[in-house]
Amino acid sequence: MKQYLQHDPWCIIENGFHRDYNEITESVMSLGNGRMGQRGNFEEGFSGKTLLGNYVAGVYYPDKTRVGWWKNGYPNYFAKVLNAANWIGIDVEIEYEKLDLNLCEVHDFRRVLNMQEGYLERNFVATLKSGRQLQVSAKRFCSIVDDESGAIRFSITPLNFDGKVTLTPYINGDVSNRDSNYDEKFWDEVRKETGYGEAYIEMRTRKTAFHVCTGMMVEIMQDGQRIDFQSQPIRQEKYVANRMTLDCKQGQETVVYKYAANLSSMNYDPDRLVPLTRDYLKRIVGKGFDRMLYEQKQAWADKWKTNDITIGGDDESAIAAAQGIRFNIFHLNQTYTGEDERLNIGPKGFTGEKYGGSTYWDTEAYCLPFYLSTADQKVARNLLLYRYKQLDKAIENAQKLGFRAGAALYPMVTMNGEECHNEWEITFEEIHRNGAIAYAIYDYVRYTGDEQYLVDYGLEVLIAISRFWSQRVNWSEAKQQYVMLGVTGPNEYENNVNNNWYTNYIAAWTLRYTMESVEKVKALNPERFTALCDKLHFREEKEVSKTKQIVEKMHFPYDEQRELFLQQDGFLDKELLTVDQLPSGQRPINQHWSWDRILRSCFIKQADVLQGMYFFEDDFDAETVQRHFDFYEPMTVHESSLSPCVHSVLASKLGLRDKAYEMYLRTARLDLDDYNNDTEDGLHITSMAGTWLSVVKGFGGLRVKEDSLLLAPYCPEQWQSLSFKVRFRNALIQVTVTQTEVSIQNFSQQSIRIVLFEESVTIEGSGLKVVELEKEA
Amino acid sequence: MKQYLQHDPWCIIENGFHRDYNEITESVMSLGNGRMGQRGNFEEGFSGKTLLGNYVAGVYYPDKTRVGWWKNGYPNYFAKVLNAANWIGIDVEIEYEKLDLNLCEVHDFRRVLNMQEGYLERNFVATLKSGRQLQVSAKRFCSIVDDESGAIRFSITPLNFDGKVTLTPYINGDVSNRDSNYDEKFWDEVRKETGYGEAYIEMRTRKTAFHVCTGMMVEIMQDGQRIDFQSQPIRQEKYVANRMTLDCKQGQETVVYKYAANLSSMNYDPDRLVPLTRDYLKRIVGKGFDRMLYEQKQAWADKWKTNDITIGGDDESAIAAAQGIRFNIFHLNQTYTGEDERLNIGPKGFTGEKYGGSTYWDTEAYCLPFYLSTADQKVARNLLLYRYKQLDKAIENAQKLGFRAGAALYPMVTMNGEECHNEWEITFEEIHRNGAIAYAIYDYVRYTGDEQYLVDYGLEVLIAISRFWSQRVNWSEAKQQYVMLGVTGPNEYENNVNNNWYTNYIAAWTLRYTMESVEKVKALNPERFTALCDKLHFREEKEVSKTKQIVEKMHFPYDEQRELFLQQDGFLDKELLTVDQLPSGQRPINQHWSWDRILRSCFIKQADVLQGMYFFEDDFDAETVQRHFDFYEPMTVHESSLSPCVHSVLASKLGLRDKAYEMYLRTARLDLDDYNNDTEDGLHITSMAGTWLSVVKGFGGLRVKEDSLLLAPYCPEQWQSLSFKVRFRNALIQVTVTQTEVSIQNFSQQSIRIVLFEESVTIEGSGLKVVELEKEA
User: Fold this and answer.
1) What is the pLDDT of residues B321-338, one digit of tens each?
2) DSSP 8-state class, residue A425
3) What is the 3-state secondary structure (H, E, C) of A586-654?
4) ipTM of this complex
5) What is the mean pLDDT of residues A636-656?
6) Which of A472, B198, B598, B755 has its CA 20 to 30 A from that of A511?
7) Are the C-beta atoms of A348 and A688 separated by less than 8 Å?
8) Can you tell me the distance from the alpha carbon of B549 to that of B538, in angstroms, rounded to the nearest whole number?
9) What's the distance, Cα to Cα, between the start and end of chain B in Å?
10) Beta-bridge partners for B434
């Protein structure tokens, strides 16, 4: 855990340069706009610890997989998020001495990520070896208005000298991935152009043949005036630049404005990328940096209007909490905007290259509720459409594993719908992901009321997933039940188990929900249903009857004595210990124990049975949930960043407020405090949605049932107040809860009826409802 | 399956050059002497399909492992059997045209491995592009008398020309492993020397720093006379040679004798390897090729005297069977001679580089009985000592996995005692190997009567293995029994199962045998026992009482209704199918099914429950074995080369002679007929012992009980007779069985008492006993 960043409600602040933590800070201060993203690297370059990262959404590389022993069915490649051409670079030379914070003295260093307005700023004074001292200020952003571009204001002020300053804004396409399996380079150069204060380089990925043109235009200001400058074009392999040497005077600020754009062949004619990039740049240069920044602030203000969460309290911990939750919301919005249904939410977003792929079950299980509640309905819908469009690949994937036509197994990790993961116990066995994709359809329809989605897309996906489940179970003569053998549940500290309760439950649930959806679609649009049956060769009677049999006769491991659903068959054969019996030196167990010891132990990586009780809470009474929480949570080591949030929500529901807060704290500042020592690789983007869940579904008690929004908020005793905004079916409300009252502000014109603490409450358009809280016993 | 090699009782014959099968033939015709081995490569080089291989026993390289996702406890390296310097090379140029069978016409090609006398011979006529025709004969062997050397007689006879022939015998150290994870080279050059008709190169392995000096001396004969020749030394990087140009006349045979030696720093002072190699070569050149070959024949004759198996019958299938069994015996003797307890039996011996490591549980489970029955007692003893000397590493290995001091887990694959394997389901879970190492001690003591071995070495190993088992089980409150969770049994088509019956059984057996051995050692040598207790901190009372508890309360999965031990918990939840229900196009399933499908299925890779009934046959009555055989064998796909032999032995015992013969056939000519399409990688050396088992323990019914040799031989109806030799406690007997009688020849001076068909029979020294067989009903 590191706490070198300042607490502030709206900004992430590094005061003084923390050289050894630079890669962590780079991750934390990443910028993105859904289309591209950029780590918090230095414009002028840095010879110390740094991980360069510019990522262009949807552009990936199929890296050769690395496996110990090949298993049939493994995918041939692992889709890597690619480091693309460096567009921020501006080399600075002062009388032939390069500015490099690794090689000079640095004073008054301050790097600030402004989350309210969406930009990154850096100021410092450098004293070079020559003794020359200069003040540098850099400000940049990835525009969410012009979302294929970024702009930089980079200024230099000599403090103790007059002299020549050489500036070389460049674009360097000769980048590689640190996370490459065989140290290969992934990009080839296609073409490049340079002109007066401008330069373009078009690169193409090997194998996947994505083209990306990165272009830049440069302006220089001195004394507040745009100046003409000598621009010497430089063209090297995979590299273009403009070199300019300026006379600078002591105290005089020289400003470089560098405008850059990344245009990819996903969105443009690959043959015209260079001229299109030039046009794009001309347009934004026409706006100018200040106008662009103004628009950026406005756009972020709009986002915060529907997204913000505030935590009241003057003490440090409340400020830290407020900063933590905003940090998460900020990055979720930077990663995914829902503009393009071909994109998804990578585990590291645009903040690092680790893991590869862009889509895990995290999207459906953790991220979807965030976008449902904070963004336009189409954002969540696009996340669903992403899977719909990859249905064919999911069917292919199931076929590769031996399933018959029509059954779909969505991949564990993917970029384009093809499976990329290759550990057999995950790839082939962690199949509950398929259930989460069905659940997301349910979640979306429940939240939005958009039943038409079922008609147009949802049912098709549900039928394919259900067909998978129907084939994946087998009849056990011994048990006289259907069993599901050889699976890995959400708790990845168990592999290849039989009858993981969660998987069996979500499978049976999918089958039921599919049957319900069949009825729904038949009722809503019989013609469409008939057409679908034809398309899918869906023989309703036969498939529904098999489905019913499975649902009725599914095996759920259960212990009569404890009245407990068991995580899997044989779970009670383990030595049952609790986490507090583990010596602290042995935690996290995944860093201290051999894999077999982890597997044999009862310790649970992340919610498994409890994940099911979280998803399907209405199927279980509170005593049942409490009993399972009491049994499983103490065995849970929470070594996945996706674990504490689910427990926090459940604990809130069970009235275990201390536990809920403890669990919330474990995710809230995961990256800001580098809790797991891995923030340098990038941020845990998808688990950020988990933090939001623990606040809004946990502390806020937000649910949607029968077309109503339900709330049961409380303010953790550590805070003075908690306030969050929620969108629900064209309404926008803000819920504020203190230790004594709840107030609900309706920002919409029309009135909204909600269920507050199980009582129906109506709030007029633009109205405010205040309810006093009963004191707790 | 390929059947291009000729059937012959003593030779493996390739008539006509089978270019596309060359790598297969190279494997089949490998030569070895326990210290070094050489694939059947061509002396003159070959630009076609070839896998060069010269292997020096014990010399390995710790190749970087390649894993998909690292698991704690994985070893850092994978020990590779190394391709060492090429010592057989003799480049041949005829008037500046290189002789290369890939580039010229080849007639009358014949390559013969003579197993009776232990050499490889090759004859052919080549017609070069120039039209020049020459007769070439090559004969070579790896001497088992001078076991660090090989000798080659290579002769050329111009058939239609007079002209200059340039011969370049060389040693090329610039070799690599095809089976390298990252295409690295493993050898550096240390020094080289050349002289008149001689050359030396000393190479050192990277990381492990083994030094190997490979040297050669060359003689030339023309017209039956040794001649002086001009020798031009060549020294290049990692390469030394002597180039000589000779005038040859039509019809005149020019013979090169090339003597080579590989001396390694495992056996010699690394600073003096070059002079020592020169001395070594001088000595063997002094003998000369003919004398060496004579000694080779004598030495092989001695081996066959105690090893041979003959199969009577004039038809092709009897000849093929005889050839097959001799082929196996021949290669087992080439691979391991028991001279050096640091060596072991690699899965490919000296015939290929695949798999790496030299020691698997195959040694104890399959190979040991072969050496026990065919070689001096010290050979088997050295196999045991190999493990004894690696006990410390096995204890370290267990510690790495979290076991407490004193518990030993022997590695799945090793070269020097350290684990090299890295699939978690094998490395950490296929722990039954530990039981096989205990069983081997029992097997050795039972066979030899050498109880002193327990005192000196055996008990120490048994205590360490038993400590592992005691820690590896845990008490199940639910079952009120000890359970063993998370294991992989011999049937590797199941991973991470609970309570694999075989593993639980061999664990409990080890615990019992250790307790017995404690008593035995106490009785034989109380002082030694006390000293051992001190050394091992063995607290007899406490450990024995825990051990007894575990033995008493061990869980063995069992089905009451079927009266069947179950392969593992939950086995009956599977869909129970038999192999004959599988479409043939889906076999072998490991090439057609995804891994999860294999795991979920009931299909069994190799004997698992039945492996236990094979090892511990006296614990189960015949009906029980039959019941288990009837249940499990039909589910067994025998996709390990180690599977059929165990089933063959059991089937023989159960009187299922057709089954026994069918299973025998599946191993007998595995490599000769390239049954699995992988002989090109090298031979399945350890499974060769399995074939021997199915003949001698299966058809022969050989057992040892209470210090007596038991026999119950029968001759498969497909043959006229079967004859095998067995050593037992200083006696050597030959058992011959026809369809009507058994005769036993005692080659020893003293009489021997054996149990034949459960009746005690005494055979006088040098006597013969003939017993008529009852006709089968």
Assistant:
1) 999 999 999 999 999 999
2) H
3) HCCHHHHCCHHHHHHCCCECCCCHHHHHHHCHHHCCHHHHHHHHHHHHHHECCCCCCHHHHHHHHHHHC
4) 0.92
5) 96
6) B598
7) no
8) 17
9) 36
10) none
Q: Per the structure block, which two tokens stand in for B384? A: 């045991």
**What residue in B sits closest to A474 (Cα-Cα)?**
B575
Answer yes or no: do A68 and B66 touch at CB < 8 A: yes
At A335-375, the pLDDT tens digits run: 999 999 999 999 999 999 987 778 999 999 999 999 999 99
Contact B474 A570 (CB under 8 A): no
Closest CA to A557 of A504, A511, A622: A504
Can A492 be counted among the known catalytic residues? yes
Q: Which of B460, B492, B639, B680 is catalytic?
A: B492
Evaluate whether B699 touches B722 at the Cβ level (below 8 Å): yes
Model pLDDT, residue A147: 97
Q: What is the mean pLDDT of residues B153-166?
A: 96
- Can you read off the two tokens belonging to residue A91? 């080399």
Read off the pLDDT of residues B606-620 as tens digits, 9 standing for 90 and up.
999 999 999 999 999
The answer to whether residues B331 and B303 touch, using CB atoms and an 8 Å cutoff, is no
Kindly identify which residue of chain A lies nearest to residue B573, measuring between CA atoms: A476
The band of A64, judged by pLDDT with boundaries at 50, 70 and 90, is confident
| Distance to chain A for B518, nearest Cα, Å | 30
Peptide bond into B588 cis (omega under 30): yes
State how far residue A390 is from chain B, nearest Cα, in angstroms.
21
Query: Is the peptide bond preceding residue A588 cis, with omega within 30 degrees of 0?
Result: yes
B476 with A590: Cβ contact below 8 A: no
Biggest alpha carbon–alpha carbon distance for chain A: 89
d(CA A458, CA A437): 10
Encode B687-718: b = buried (16+ Cβ within 10 Å), e = exposed. bbbbbbbbbbbbbbbbbbeeeebbbbbbbbeb
Distance from CA of A660 to the nearest CA of B (A): 31
Query: Are B474 and A600 a contacting pair at CB < 8 A?
Result: yes
According to DSSP, residue A759 is labeled E
- Nearest residue to A151 (alpha-carbon basis) of A194, A199, A119: A119
How far away is chain B from the Cα of A595, in angstroms, using its nearest Cα?
6
In terms of Cα–Cα distance, which of A552, A544, A553 is closest to A517?
A544
CB contact under 8 A, B595 and A428: yes
User: What is the dihedral angle through the alpha carbons of B481, B485, B491, B493, rounded to the nearest 10 degrees?
Assistant: 140
Identify all chain A residues contacting B576, using CB atoms and an 8 Å cutoff: 477
The pTM for the full model equals 0.94
Q: Which of A492, A494, A543, A639 is catalytic?
A: A492
Q: Which of B491, B594, B601, B639 should one mutate to test binding to chain A, selecting the residue with the greatest count of A CBs within 10 A? A: B594
Residue B433: what pLDDT?
Answer: 98
d(CA A276, CA A292): 19
Cα–Cα distance, A423 to A495 (Å, whole number) = 11
Residue B49, classified by CB atoms within 10 Å of its CB into exposed (0-12), middle (13-18) or buried (19+), is middle
Interface size A-B, in CB pairs within 8 Å, comes to: 134
Rounded distance, CA B431 to CA B74, Å?
A: 15
Amino acid type, B376: D
Judged by DSSP in three states, A374 sits in helix
Which of B65, B476, B554, B573 is most worth mutating to test chain A (most A CB atoms within 10 A of its CB)?
Answer: B573
pLDDT per position as a tens digit, B335-387: 999 999 999 999 999 999 987 778 999 999 999 999 999 999 999 999 999 99
With contacts defined as CB-CB under 8 Å, which chain A residues touch B572?
476-478
Output the CA angle A416-A422-A427, nearest 5 degrees.
Answer: 80
Helix (H) or strand (E) holding A299: helix A273-307
